From TrEMBL:
It comes from Tumebacillus algifaecis. InterPro entries: Integrin_alpha_N. The lineage of its organism: Bacteria, Bacillati, Bacillota, Bacilli, Bacillales. This is VCBS repeat-containing protein.
Length: 356
């Protein structure tokens, strides 16, 4: 099995594999090594930064991770992974991408723990007096603090999103205000935390990016996905179910074309991005007449070229989400069929041998 430790272009790395120093990764030169591809095998990968952070706001921390292999295949980890090490199957080899864990230098950059970014007031604990919810941010994290009118801490949470948002609204339609916290996880996936002051519980619901107030104090939750070319917003109503998890009723879907895909590259980008955000209906807008959407999905992509009616791109599919993916190459044929969303359309999508 051939591995390549890929450069990160920011900190560089001194690399050790199974307690042996392998070398240095910097600039654009990967560091290659091989291991056997039969039987069980364990890799201990240790990386240490060569440079400090230029901003001075954070400190990159050396780290070590274990990769288990069985007969030339990566074994899914037994524990929940973080974003530090990311394995990619590319062609016949494997790439190791890394992101250093970081600790914050307090008092630097975005540090605002003494100055709230957002404030919402409402009677969250239902005692007839106004309580205060506030958000704060550091370089890496967002903080939410809810204080009662007496000054008691009702809620204090830390999130991996320093751009989180809070709202005070009667989402549950029980006549009492709720605290809604919208935040994103490590892989940019959206979540809603719903604080119910009646019992102090905090419920988690994935997929919601915000809320919208409608007539008669009604509140709908938004699930918004957006590319550079199209926006799709699904609006849901919260439906409480006694003694069970809440349900969400889809009320309507709103779509908007944000810009025309004016050339071949735009068309391919719009098509690939739509599938990456799971907007398959949007992806169909960029297909030529009579062409069916391929039975493929991916979470990210990279354009290589688009000219003379032919485009090439890489797509990336998770094998183990957040830890191990694979790279596939596509060739796309384009034809000129102007309409309100694009000038060009995709006439065929073909798989390519990697790198050819």
């Amino acid at each position: 099995m051939e591995f390549a430790v890929m450069p990160d272009y920011l900190y560089g790395a001194s690399v050790r594999i199974n307690d042996k120093w392998l070398g240095i990764v910097e600039d654009d030169r990967p560091l290659l090594f091989r291991v056997r591809d039969t039987g069980p095998f364990t890799l201990l990968v240790e990386l240490a930064p060569l440079r400090t952070d230029l901003t001075g706001d954070v400190i990159a921390v050396p780290f070590a991770r274990v990769i288990k292999i069985q007969d030339g295949e990566i074994v899914p980890p037994d524990v929940e992974t973080d974003d530090a090490l990311h394995i990619r199957k590319s062609g016949s080899g494997f790439q190791l991408h890394f992101v250093y864990p970081k600790v914050e230098v307090l008092g630097q950059g975005l540090e605002t723990l003494m100055m709230p970014l957002q404030t919402e007031t409402a009677d969250f604990d239902h005692d007839g007096r106004l309580d205060v919810a506030q958000t704060f941010a550091t370089n890496l994290r967002g903080h939410v603090r809810l204080k009662s009118a007496k000054g008691n801490i009702l809620l204090q949470e830390v999130y991996p999103d320093n751009a989180l948002q809070i709202e005070a609204a009667d989402l549950t339609r029980d006549g009492r205000p709720d605290l809604l916290i919208f935040w994103r996880g490590a892989h940019d996936e959206p979540f809603l935390h719903l604080y119910d002051g009646a019992d102090g519980s905090l419920s988690t619901y994935p997929g919601f990016t915000g809320m919208r107030r409608t007539g008669l104090a009604d509140v709908l939750l938004e699930n918004k996905v957006q590319t550079g070319f199209r926006e799709v917003v699904k609006l849901y109503r919260y439906l409480p179910v006694p003694y069970e998890s809440a349900q969400f009723q889809l009320m309507r879907t709103e779509t908007k074309i944000l810009q025309l895909a004016a050339d071949e590259e735009d068309t391919v980008e719009a098509f690939l991005a739509a599938i990456a955000v799971e907007d398959r209906q949007g992806a169909e807008l960029y297909l030529a007449k009579g062409v069916r959407l391929p039975d493929l999905s991916w979470y990210a992509h990279e354009m290589h070229s688009a000219k003379d009616g032919v485009a090439t791109a890489s797509i990336f599919q998770w094998i183990v989400p957040g830890y191990y993916d694979r790279e596939l190459w596509l060739e796309l044929e384009l034809v000129r069929q102007p309409d309100k969303v694009s000038v060009w359309k995709i006439g065929a999508v073909k798989m390519r041998v990697h790198g050819n």
